[in-house]
Amino acid sequence: MGMGRPGAGESIARAMQIIEAVGDLGPGATSREIADRLDLPPANIYRLLNTLAVEEYLVRTADLRGFALGNRLNTMVHSAVTPYMSSRAQELCEKFRASVRFGVYVMHFRPATLRIVDMDPDHPLAAEHEMIRSLHASAAGKLLLAADSQWRELLPPTLPALTQSTVVEMRELAAQVEETRQRGYAVSVDEMLDGEASIAVPILDVEGVVRGAVTVKGFSARLDAITSLVPRCRELAAELGPLLY
């Protein structure tokens, strides 16, 4: 019997795998990256990628080089995957932002990636795509890794260097992960973008599991001022935890 096109059941399963891969890789995932994640030749997924884009389960990014989850899929899964920012949670974040001169964000952790559930309107992230996909470089990503005993499995074999300061050696990253666990919060300095520093303080659910983070971002030259906000970030995280989880 010859090898023809995959049957309907196999095509559906492969389409779901593609959607899951785009969700894990984050906005801008290229066909090559998706194929590598699924261990398939790119030619095998082109047709399904185009079909998913036509049906709005995926959408092409503005530069036409990659894909992101589409509106149709976002509508289906948003409430189930992303915690709801209630008016009280938004009020707490707005009050905190009004008292500092840095960007303040609320992150939600999934098993292998993170999502921004509350963006600072006055401080848009210049490297949102890289932050989501490069867990080893951002403060929120380091915190996510520190919360997972199998954190090495969440990373690619080769860690990309986003700047000259990005930690790409696994031994050095392991030391940072352990330091984050001991300290109780994560720090990133010049690793995502030159001249940028951030901290991430954990948000816990009712069982004490790390489910997200309060992140503060500013200029590296203001690192001391940023880290001085850790106690206040912990207070905000403690208030947000019951509201989000």
UniProtKB/TrEMBL annotation:
HTH iclR-type domain span: 9-71
Domain IclR-ED: 65-245
UniProt keywords, alphabetically: DNA-binding, Transcription, Transcription regulation
Superkingdom of origin: Bacteria
Pfam family, one: HTH_IclR
PROSITE patterns in alphabetical order: HTH_ICLR, ICLR_ED
Any single biological process term in GO: negative regulation of DNA-templated transcription
SUPFAM superfamilies: GAF domain-like (SSF55781), Winged helix' DNA-binding domain (SSF46785)
GO molecular function: DNA binding; DNA-binding transcription factor activity
Name of this protein: Putative IclR family transcriptional regulator
Organism (species): Gordonia sputi NBRC 100414
